[in-house]
Task: inverse folding
């Protein structure tokens, strides 16, 4: 049986390297470690090859350069996973090249406009018989799977609350920092009369030990647009992200105020410098992070109910969470699962159990809570 050939773009980057490490545990795959640096790609292959269940190779590929379609055909790639963010401001040239080459496409984007707009390529995806999936990350892939599970059997969903707070000692990628800063101090679109400003204010949320109480601030994610029409009741939705160290969180609030006042145009252009400053405090706090989802509404009998879910990540394993959806999708493609071709946000294709299975071997606990 032929191995499924999966190219990971940005494979030696922050999320890419973690994704390749998880994929290498699957048999029946040939993983192409791809990027613009041959030495970095080769080093990752050499570090993983001894214990890998899959076969690995590397290739020098610049997905933003012309000729990607021909390159994918020459390498006989079956699926491409795009991990090179930030996706805010990117176009769909990589996904389009995949459709033209007859290759499945998956990305780890969490930018609202990028994820929600991928369906513009639906005609090309269906004509080619491939999947073009955006948002195979913590949001909306995991978050929607959780809400699907919690909302099952409910007659009406009235509100959804989602939050993510990584441990301060957990590694953070530059592209993630840039993405967060891109909407710091800017209005979050499509939220009715609330007129929320990204990162402007904080609110508290209590997680189980050892994470404890964390401050969260409003952030822009695809779920804000995608989840309300998905459930009976067109629920209101809140999403917050937070930093473990409260003074860094308050610093983000102050930065948001400056941007909201027009004193700073775009904090993301300072991402490298700000990440370096935050790293001064890298040894403070813990390596424990968490994600929560709470769903409120009416049960099948019309009684008010609230259901909750939490993910706890320790040992610095939090950054693996955004890679779990792509791992589960590759597993399904390799098994020949019937996945309907088309271009769409990554929702409804994975169950919560798929994520639980992919988290095996990591310091990640997932459970429903009262």
Result:
């Amino acid at each position: 049986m032929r191995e499924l050939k999966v190219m990971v773009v940005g494979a030696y980057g922050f999320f890419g390297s973690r994704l390749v490490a998880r994929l290498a545990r699957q048999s029946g795959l040939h993983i192409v470690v791809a990027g613009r640096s041959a030495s970095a790609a080769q080093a990752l292959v050499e570090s993983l090859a001894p214990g890998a269940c899959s076969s690995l190779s590397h290739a020098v590929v610049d997905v933003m350069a012309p000729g990607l379609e021909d390159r994918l055909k020459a390498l006989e790639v079956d699926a491409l996973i795009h991990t090179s963010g930030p996706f805010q401001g990117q176009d769909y040239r990589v996904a389009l090249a995949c459709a033209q080459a007859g290759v499945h496409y998956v990305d780890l984007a969490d930018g609202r406009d990028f994820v929600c707009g991928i369906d513009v390529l639906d005609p090309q995806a269906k004509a080619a018989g491939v999947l073009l999936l955006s948002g195979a990350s913590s949001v909306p892939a995991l978050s929607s799977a959780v809400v699907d599970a919690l909302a099952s059997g409910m007659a009406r969903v009235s509100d959804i609350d989602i939050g993510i707070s990584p441990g301060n000692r957990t590694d953070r990628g530059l592209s993630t920092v840039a993405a967060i800063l891109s909407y710091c101090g800017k209005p979050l679109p499509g939220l009715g009369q609330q007129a929320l400003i990204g990162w402007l204010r904080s609110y508290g949320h209590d997680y189980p030990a050892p994470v404890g109480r964390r401050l969260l601030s409003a952030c822009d994610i695809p779920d804000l647009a995608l989840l309300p029409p998905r459930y009976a009741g067109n629920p209101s939705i809140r999403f917050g992200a937070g930093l473990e160290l409260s003074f860094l969180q308050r610093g983000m609030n102050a930065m948001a105020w400056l941007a909201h006042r027009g004193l700073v145009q775009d904090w993301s252009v300072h991402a490298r410098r700000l990440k370096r400053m935050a790293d001064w405090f890298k040894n403070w706090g813990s390596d424990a992070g968490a994600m929560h989802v709470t769903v409120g509404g009416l049960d099948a009998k019309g009684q008010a109910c609230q259901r909750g879910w939490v993910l706890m990540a320790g040992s610095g394993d939090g950054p693996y969470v955004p890679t779990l959806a792509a791992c589960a999708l590759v597993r399904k493609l390799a098994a020949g699962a019937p996945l309907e071709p088309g271009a769409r946000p990554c929702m409804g294709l994975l169950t919560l159990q798929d994520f639980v299975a992919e988290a095996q071997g990591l310091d990640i606990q997932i459970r429903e809570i009262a």
User: Anything to note?
Assistant: The mean pLDDT is 93. The two ends are 46 Å apart (CA to CA). The domain at 4-138+319-362 is CATH 3.40.50.720 (Rossmann fold).
